[in-house]
Amino acid sequence: DASCLLPRVLVSSGQQTDFNNLHESWETSNEVRTADGKRIAFFNPYFQVFRPSRYYDPAVVGVVGRPVALCAITSGDLKVRSNECSGMTTTVAGALVALDYDDALSSFNGVHRQIDINDNVVSNSDGPAVWYSDPFGQKARTTPFTGSIRQFVSTINNDYGVGVNGPVIGGDRNYGGKGVRAPN
Fold this sequence. Notes:
By secondary structure, the chain is mainly beta. Helix content is 7%, strand content 29%.
């Protein structure tokens, strides 16, 4: 949020802004569980988005602050001093103005992202491979019911009693390209 972010990115002369302080972490926890409480499958990937186009700021209309707008802010000697802001401001009538948040030239478009795999647990060695659950993965049973969602679950048991985290995927990829802009 703004109270955490601003003191870290608005820096004095001779310092460098570190925008690694700005990222979104979407942490999920998902499961498929039978009506009697047996857990069939569980997974909890975390989705990390670096240099996103937004941050929480309760002081602005809509409570969404825009990192690209920080490139044009000064407070005494404090300002953003970073390569991310190079070429993202212009002077209009003597005032420093930032690009629009969804301009394709903005560095704050969330194209650097990754998935942290975390736990993947399947407790379904006796099957079946197809279960039907409510939209929240609960009340799973072997026959469809009104509003149910068909779930495909491998017929294995990999529940070793300890959390085994997997790899990070996508952290070294560029998901951007010509014309990609926030939100993407």
